[in-house]
Each structure stands twice: as structure tokens, then as C-alpha cells.
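Researcher: We're teaching a course module on how sequence relates to structure. For the next exercise, students receive a sequence and then see the predicted structure as C-alpha cells, so they can try to spot secondary structure elements on their own. Here is the exercise chain.
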Amino acid sequence: MRLLLVEDDSHLADSLTEVLAAQRYAIDWVRDGESGWKQIREFVYDLILLDVTLPKLDGIGLCQRIRSNGILAPVLMLTARDTCLDKVIGLDAGADAYMVKPFEIQELLAQIRALLRRGQAGSAPVLTWGCLCLDPSSYEVTYDRCPLRLTPKEFALMEALLRNGKRVLSRAAMLEQAWSWQDPPEEETIKTYVKNLRAKLRAAGAPGDVIETVYGLGYRLKALD
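Model: And here is the predicted structure for the students to work with:
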């Protein structure tokens, strides 16, 4: 899952980025509303965490712009403003939920999970490819019911492969799925992660070529018989 955090408080943003990354989310962070809008136009996000008081374009204006452009990603507003009127304004602008600072981190994580489930309503929650299964809501991956213990980056790459099926994913596209735009590694890093995924799949009983290399292009899952 890819999340965008629009927050001008660098200390809070650093803390949230660390916590959310530990929960296997890919996080992009920007400091102002106009930068947030630029990110939203360039990338698809599963959820947007949005401060209300922002430079250049405030959270209310950004949320209104998001909705007026037909973008349906869940928006969770984070703000120190705690009056009833402030909450009404935020929700009327198109936010899906509203949390007042300071908040308990476990409550924030629960809100994020609830909004992500809501955003996935109507779609199959479990991704499958033959005997390979991945559950985005529980972060479980199995092959023929044998669990695979994946790191957050490995999980994100496996999810990207399953979502694309037989379509080839370039290394650049895989980097975009698992790393924030601020700190992407070299594309060669993907080779190491794919090697590790193949090893863990083999250990679970899968054939070694479940993840195919399409030379010069990228990777995809092997076509089912």
C-alpha cells in the first residue's frame, strides 16, 4: 500500500514515516499543499494523510481540489483544530475521517486500516496466482498454504507482481511500488530482492521460476498452465 503524508511538522512527519514504514506501507512525505497536489497528480495513492494547516495550499483547499478532480483515495485529516465546526468543514471538504493532534498511534493505525478496507470494498481482498496467495489486509503470503515470511519491501514487490499478473513490471516500476520517491535505491537493488523472493518461494515448495525474468524489460509471474 502506498500512502502520501502532507505535513509541515518535520518531527511529526519523521515519526509517522518510521511507524508507517514498520507497518509495511510505502510512504511519500511532502511539506506543503502544492507539493502534495503535485504528488497526487503524478502517483496513485491508496490513502492520503493530510494536515489542515499547511503552507501554500491548506489542507481544506487541497482536499477540495482532490475531490473536484474525481480522485477517490481515502483522505484522513490530521489537525490540532478540535472544534465541531472545524470537523464539519474538514468532512464537508471531502475528508473521510478526522483526527485531532495529539493522537494515539494505535488509533491512527486502526483508522488507516479501516479506511483502506473501505477503499477496497467490492474488490477481491486476497490476491492469488495458482497456489500463491497474498492477503493485503493481514500481510500474509502463502504458497500452497505454506507461509512465506517476507520483509516489508519483499511484501510490496510480491503484491506488485500479483496485481500485474502476466504483465511485465520494469525495475523502475517495482521501485515505485516499494520505495518512496525521496529515497529510491539503485535499480540493481531489485535483482537482490527478486533473488530473495525466489529463494523463499522455493523454500515453501514453489518452482524456482514462479517469478520470470523478461530480459531487458523486467519481471512477471510465470503463466499458469
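Model: If you want an answer key for the exercise: The mean pLDDT is 83. The first helix runs from residue 10 to 22.
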